Amino acid sequence: MFIKRYVAKTVNEALQQIRSELGRDAVILSQKKIKARGLAGLFGQRVVEIVAGIDEAGSKNSGQMEKVVSPPLASSSPVVSVSETPAPHIEAKRLQSQEQQLQEPATLLQAASVQAELQDIRALLGTLLIGEIDGVRSRELAMTMQQLTGTSLSQTLLQRFLRLHAESVGTNPATATTAALRRLVSEVIEEAGSIRALDPKDRLVAFIGPTGVGKTTTVAKLAAVSRLRDNRQVGLLTLDTFRVAAVEQLRTYAEILNIPFAVARTGQELQEQVDTWSDLDLVLIDTTGRGFLDTAQAENLGKLLSQIPLDLTYLVLSAAAREAEARQVALRLKEVGYDALLFTKLDETILPSLILTMVNELHRPLSYFSIGQQVPHDLIVADESTLQAYFCGGESLARSS
């Protein structure tokens, strides 16, 4: 095999050189970003290095090239054909297979190396798609795929999007990308069940989740809506004695709304306070958010909440959270139990792909979206049209970039 190293400012420039010298049967053996040499080792710019090769029998310019021995390639090294763009569903399946390797026991260094390689493959895939697929709509699909693969959308949902896109192309090619995104959102939400907002029958409602996601503010928003709009008798109860600021924050909201407020430190205090408020229509319970990556902390919370007959428990997650962390928290709190998902900080994320991923994996319905800090205005009931608007905004993702 003839192997040659190409260095260029962009991937496209390197690919053009490869096609010109090696032909369209060449294969990409590796691709990475490096720092070019500058004056006295300084001021070097970031460039792309691609190593490409071609079988000796298939090379038209074999006489003009130096024959080198092909170095052994690691099993995880990508080999991408330059002559044709990989089919999106095949590439997505290959990426999923490689990402599953991260779940196997490995050192942090190995995991980081594989993750970096996957990112390079995604970037190269997007470039190849844009450069090789003909037609405006295919270009739009390629750009959308580039954006989606850079978010927390799972590989399972990426493959599903491609399947829906293929079906939509047959109906109306001009709107296939947007239609596929809307169908994906609609199907995932529908499969998880009806939206689980507060019901008049719900009396004891708890909010669980990691620290910093905005549970306390969300509790205050729902208290304000229930008191001012629905005219319900509401009480605020907090178990979060770990953060003094959380107690004072909720106490202040209770004073503004002129509703009762209490703090419970033990299961007995929790039970006694709930019994004392038996005449209230609704009791909203804020919980501590610390240490849920520690199984013991989740178990302690579960024991505490088991002292009262909860009607509804919301798992509160940030739409801007990292996928791995959100998944771990949800797994730890599964033993505590939760009935629906409530996502905050939609105003802090460009594309809330984590919402679809978690709804699809946890099989729990949505409830509310928190879209800002204002109480009570920035809390809306979750529905598919709202989430579709975030993904499409009336236009495709490609056009919004």
From TrEMBL:
Membrane topology, as annotated: Peripheral membrane protein
Annotated compartments: Cell membrane
Record keywords, A-Z: Bacterial flagellum biogenesis, Bacterial flagellum protein export, Cell membrane, Cell projection, Cilium, Flagellum, GTP-binding, Membrane, Nucleotide-binding, Protein transport, Transport
Cellular component annotations (GO), alphabetically ordered: plasma membrane
Region (Disordered): 62-81
Residue ranges that the Swiss-Prot or TrEMBL entry lists as coiled coil: none
Residues of the AAA+ ATPase domain: 201-381
Pfam family membership, one: SRP54
One GO term (biological process): bacterial-type flagellum organization
UniProt function note: Necessary for flagellar biosynthesis. May be involved in translocation of the flagellum.
Protein known as: Flagellar biosynthesis protein FlhF
Organism from which the protein derives: Sulfoacidibacillus thermotolerans
Biological classification of the source: Bacteria, Bacillati, Bacillota, Bacilli, Bacillales
